[in-house]
Structure formats: C-alpha cells, structure tokens
Amino acid sequence: MNLTQDTTTFKGSSLHALVTIALQTICGLFCPFLLAQPAKPQAAYNQAKPSNIIASNIQMMPAISVGAENTADYLTLLKNKRVGIVANPTSRIGNTHLIDSLKTLGINITGVFAPEHGFRGDAENGAHIHNDIDPKTGLKIISLYGKHVKPTADDLKNMDVVVFDIQDVGTRFYTYLTTLHYVMQACSDNNKPLVVLDRPNPNGFYVDGPVLESNLKSMVGVHPIPIVHGMTLGELAKMINGQGWLKDSTSPKRKSCKLTVIPCKNYTHNRSYQLPVSPSPNLPTQNAIYLYPTLCLLEGTPVSMGRGTDKPFECFGAPWLKQGTYSFVPRAIPGKSLNPPYLGDSCHGVLLSNFASEFIVSYKHLYIEWLVMLYQECPDKSKFFNPFFDKLAGTPMLKQQIIQGLKPGEIRDSWQAGIDQFLALRKPYLLYPFDPNIGLN
C-alpha cells in the first residue's frame, strides 16, 4: 500500500491503512510490494492500541474544573481592585465568558489585552491585531500581537492586577505562551501582580522535539524548551519565573513577577481533555490539536497543512505531491485564512483525521516521518525549507539532519539529551501528576 490508496474515509481497517502509511514513510519507499501485502506494525508502533488512548473508566473520573471556574480561590485577589484581563474566546466559566462572569460578580475590569487572533478570535493566523473597543462591554481592547507584543506602563496605569486566562495547546511555537512571557515581563517592570487561571494542556501527556537554541528566539519561541513541553501555562509561568527567563539584554537584572497560579482541579497530564472552545480559528477540532505539534512544522516548507479548507491541520498536500488520493483546493476563508498556501490550486495528499485519534495519541512523539518523506518526494529539494522552518524547529539541526538523510529514529535520538535535561529542570514547577509510561487516559 502507498499513499495512492484512498485515505479519505478510513472505513473498516483504518488503523491498518494508517500504520501502513507510517511504515512506508519511515522506509522512505513507495514500493509495489506494499500495495499487495498487509502491513505488520514494527515495534515502535505497537503502542498504537485503543486501550492506550482512552481508558474505559474515564466516565468514572471526577470532572476537571479549570482555574477560572475555581472563583473562591482568586476572587479575594481581585475585589476592590482595577483589573486588567488577558483573554480570548477560550476564557470562559462554563458557557459564559470570564469577563461577563467577573463583572456579574462585581469585579471592576478596566481593560482587556488580546493575543494573536484577537479578543473574539476572528483574526486569521499572523494577522496584525489592532486596538479596539469591545462592542458588548465597551471595554478598551489592547492588542498584544503585531508590533505591540508587550503591555506598556501606559497600558497598565489603570490596573492594579492582571489576570491571564487563555487555553493553550502545548507547543513552544503556539504564540499564547509568548504572550504570557511578555505579560510577565510587563508585570515585573511595573510592579503589577499577575494571576494565571490555569487550564489543561491537551498535548500534556508527552514531551518531544529539539530544545530551542537562544539565537533563534522569536514570536514562535522564546524559551529553551522542547517543541512539545508537556506543561500547562500555569506551570510554565512558574518555570519562567523560577529560571529567570524574564531577563533579557534590555533588562539583565529584571526580577520575577508577582505570580499567583490558580490550578485546575482533578487534572493530571495523563488525563484526556476535550477543549470546549476552539483555541484558534485553524484548530477547530481535537484531531487538529493532536496533529498540530507535527504539522505546524510544515509551515516552514512548501507543503499545505490544509489552511483554507474545512480540515486545517488534519491533512497535508501540495500540487507537486504525486502520492495520495485526498485532494483539496485552498480558498480564502475570512477570519481563518485569507491567503493560504496554494490558494486556488489543487493539492494532492493525505487526510489524517482518524490517524490523530487512532495513532498519534498513542505514539507520543512528533511524527517527523512525514517531514522526511515529503522532503524525499519534493521535486526541488533546494526550495523545500524556507527561513521560518528553523524558527519553528528551534534549531538548524533538524533541517540539516533531514537533508543529510538521517532516519527518523536517529533524528529523535539526537533530541534525547536535551529532553532529559528539560524533564529534570521542570520537575519543581509541575502542579499536576505525570507518568510518561501511561500516555493518555
């Protein structure tokens, strides 16, 4: 079997088809033998068992309550204070936005900061967000994306305390973590306390990828952590403070900020968490969230990961990719992607929706096999990597290793020392149990 097999429906033996794709990707071969012979999973893929994905007793577990819902733990910190809030559509208590809930509880909200995609979450990836007035509440919204990534003293002058409540997806290059970093810096510089209302990490059950090198810091990575860090934003805030990462060349003596983290209840890093609200316009499903850590690396290549379609981050393809029978034509979608790669062109590739829930969750690694395969298939390899790739990877080494023809296992082994150091470094900051042997339950 090769990528020319129909992968659009995945009916019947879907896992068999997907594991076959995985095997031929690792081998880098599209041989006729695989068309006729059933695939036997190699040892590395024996983890892909349904029992490892969702445990049968999941319904018996007490419900997870996110930090925002635990109002008794933080309302006293906000009473009779002027409160600034860093928020987006994920900032909710049940079905009600955090701002509406806090106003009902008598909290004086004096301003709102919006990350990438905006306060209402209707801006496409990378779009510059402008300051505005929220029509529902009349509150001033200050953008923290574009040229203005860090609150200024003037932004904070009418605030006594800042609350941060945004749902993350657990990767170094997802920019909400970068926004948290700059908010912490601003709070430190202006002596403002920060309250982080923690939320679960849907990709918090594993750690993988190279650690960011300091010369590649950018909006898609500011901390020396792996691509998949396995931490919540509350835990990372504690780590950023504790490791002195708020310091930079402009403020080498900057102190930690006055931080309070309101933790989730009944959460562990091995517990499955279905996001109730899409964290950003192009991550509309849980499958997209599971695939995002791997597929986002394709942003640094001439491969589409489905922007401009109804399956963003659930597929990949390109006009030049001959393998695969899943076809899509990227189009302009307001609020999601106005100018996606290959706009109006027919792309050939693979639909990965079932692969996410049936395999990726149990594999517990970035699926760099796809990167290796796509590089090998690209007709002009000199144009496969663009300058953004190294920023996403956090190192030039990954690109070099793929060009040199290293196998995925060899590439992954090269990350292990950095991952081990990170795992030891993060231990004091974890708020929730983590067992690397369990996976997701």
Q: In what range is the share of β-strand residues?
A: 5-15%
Radius of gyration, CA atoms, in whole angstroms: 22 Å
- The figure for the number of domains is 2
Shape: globular
Query: Residue ranges: pLDDT <50 for 5 or more in a row?
Result: 1-56, 121-129
Strand tally, please? Answer: 14
CATH superfamily of the largest domain: Uncharacterised protein PF07075, DUF1343
Percent in helix: 25-40%
Order of helices and strands: HHHEEEHEEEHEHEEEHEHEEEHHHHH
CATH topology of the largest domain: Rossmann fold
Largest sheet: 7 strands, mixed
The computed structural class is: alpha/beta
Q: Given the structure, what is the number of helices?
A: 13
State the distance separating the first and last CA atoms: 31 Å
CATH architecture field of the largest domain: 3-Layer(aba) Sandwich
Query: Strand order of the main beta sheet, please?
Result: 5-6-4-1-7-8-11
CATH class of the largest domain: Alpha Beta
User: Mean pLDDT, rounded to whole units?
Assistant: 86
